Known about the structure:
Chain A is α/β, with parallel strands linked by helices.
Amino acid sequence: MSLHHRDTVVARPRSARHALGRSSRLAGLAAASLVLAACGGGGGGGGEEDPAAAEAFPEDDITFVVPFSAGGPTDTVTRLVAEPIAEELGGTVVVQNVEGAGGTIAAGEVAAANPDGYTVLMHHIGMSTAPSLYPDLPYAPLEDFEPLGLVTQVPMTIVARNDFEPQTMEELVEYVEQNAADITLANAGIGAASHLCGLLLQEALGVELTEVPYEGTGPALQDLVAGEVDLMCDQTTNTTGQIQGGQIKAYAVTTPERVETLPDLPTTEEAGLEELQVGVWHGFYVPTGTPEGIREKLSAAILASLEDENVVSQLGELGAAPFSQEEATPEAHRQLLEDQIELWQPIIEEAGVAAD
Amino acid sequence: MEILQNIGLGFETAFTPINLLFAFIGVALGTAVGVLPGIGPTATIALLLPITFGFDPVTSLIMLAGIYYGAQYGGSTTAILINLPGESSAAVTAIDGHQMARQGRAGPALATAALGSFFAGTVGTLALALFAVPISEAALLFGPAEYFSLVVLGLIASIALASGSVLKALAMIVLGLLLGTVGQDLVSGTPRFTFGLRELYGGLDFVSLAVGLFGVAEILRNLEGNITRSVAVQKVKNLWLTRADFRRIRGPVLRGTGLGTVLGVLPGAGHVLASFVSYSVEKRVSKNSHEFGKGAIEGVAAPESANNAAAQTQFVPLLTLGLPVSPIMALLLGAFIIQGIVPGPNVINEEPELVWGLIASMWIGNFFLVLLNLPLIGLWVKMLTIPYRFLFPAIIAFASIGTYSIGLNAYDIYAIAFFGVLGYVLIKLGNEPAPLLLGFVLGPLLEEYLRRSLIISDGDPSVFVTRPISAVLLLLAFGAFVLAVLPSIRRKRDVVFEEES
């Protein structure tokens, strides 16, 4: 059985994109592990407990599947932690980008992959919104995946064109309530973090603005800088440069704490909008049925990576921070996923956007 | 002179041995992936991005940028030799370039592409260095309404692309527009023409469309008769340009460079639009317009210059405003972020070495490219002497591997096969695939900008004529339309007169 699994992994050259971390034990170990795996063949199916397999894990490259393009924020976060995770596990981690359909193609593939711990999905907040956005989803986030742990949450900023009237968050709230019909709100496309944040903003203020969708953040920001649209809510990774450069103005950051790179920007809570809390949280998943021993090993490595100095400082430059050890556990991750699915479902339904 | 200081600083940075080496690696890789059908610069940069994590920021960006503009050089090679555009903007080059190759003039066609690219790349970089800030400010004057009108102008101008019947060209453009509607609707999220295929949610892929319509269809056509092959039916005459050739490409290269420099700044498909538009312009102004579609050297010089100039000025919004106008620029933005540099309007002041080093490296890179590509011409032309029974399976294999490697999905191979058959049917019906590709590229932009303009204006269509830039563009479009229709009206009148007399 396990030999079959290993063959499947080896026979997937598509995962051999780029190896990170230690590629320590080479051919010798690979041969040895094949023998080992062959011996363990009588041990039972992948879903069943096999202490020996968990003990020996990882015997092969582990693939981290990223559902978005290389160089994007999710990809950056994944590659940042992949190295310390590989080191912690004493193995090699391969990062693979499988793009398309708002990340649901990648998630669908991982859900159908062998639950042996060698195929791991990285996904962000989109994991919780996909069931509402794509009713024909080939997987169920809570049933088909085991959350391994959370990594980081990228804060979002509420920004506007420079000559937009309101100067502060308080003024913005008042202005939006009075002029809702005339205000345009840009986003980077259906299901994008900026779209979700925009929905929540409208919900929090109890208004309906004119939503202007774009294909990606770049063109949306360009029109905001040019003054074609009024408002937008997007990740710090996308907006910090323009805010610091004085091309757009920022009202608030949507996380409980201020961000280091924009110290003068108040939080939505400080500005009196407690309910407007949204961040792009990232976490790892394996398909349901992955042996517990292997999951524990992976989770422990993920938790350890969050304390890595380089990870902390690099995330800081992105305007984000790793989750604390208590917040990042698999249990906390499952809880957050459940809460978020519940939070977004009515909001997305009410907005009437769905891919079906 | 501050600008001279800046450029001096740039060369100081770019001329270190390590940066020279990586500029060379970048452009060489770019040439390679440009030549290989299917795999393009976007996939290559995405693949190599992680390797550059450990590099110095400027070294990393010099290499990644080199891959991008290097691919613009390489893309024309297979387009000319085997009618297979290796890169999206090379689709136009295939029209006349491949005809030249069939007439035994592959050498001059490749030389024209290389020299035109070199000139345009150098001038485009100069424009980037001198006018980056004003160019980016001008780009900000373009809102959705202006872009809509510009796309309308591009579409109408491109009717000139067809060498045959205007009606057939229109039919192809419309088919392209329709193919462009496949995928998830941007505003409502509703899937359109996806037939339950998740792979179609993101729309059809330009690369598999182009590889199928041009490359595979050409192979099918070559295999149908007892003609062993179409390419090099005539002896390869000479490898280099004649003096007459030089005179003929001078104007097209200059105009192509100008158009490319301006259009490159536009978001979306700036460099593809640039090559299509410059081809249409040449066809209209050239003394040899009857040769277009049958191997006019101008038809290679203009689009190749345009797409290379555009490739350089596409960096303007990224470097001056931190705004990526295309997926490639978004990847390079990712490279900045990974290096801990926050892209934005301050980058040019805070990281002058990085920005000017990158700009200077583009001159060096373009120089490497012409040095690399000119000697290769002889080799490429030799490739045409390989018996076709060996060549065509290799072409199909390379195209399939290249396309598969981007999305890692067997669906892309089926797409190539499907469009190959479609392309063959179109050829048999006497239709040309180039206007279809243009419709496919511009259709989604047309729709996107139209709907966005109307959303922002609250449904008021008068924005297109009350905004001055948009109004001028529409007026130009109308003029181009009249010019395109006029000859056929006159011809009809001539016919009428003949009958009367």
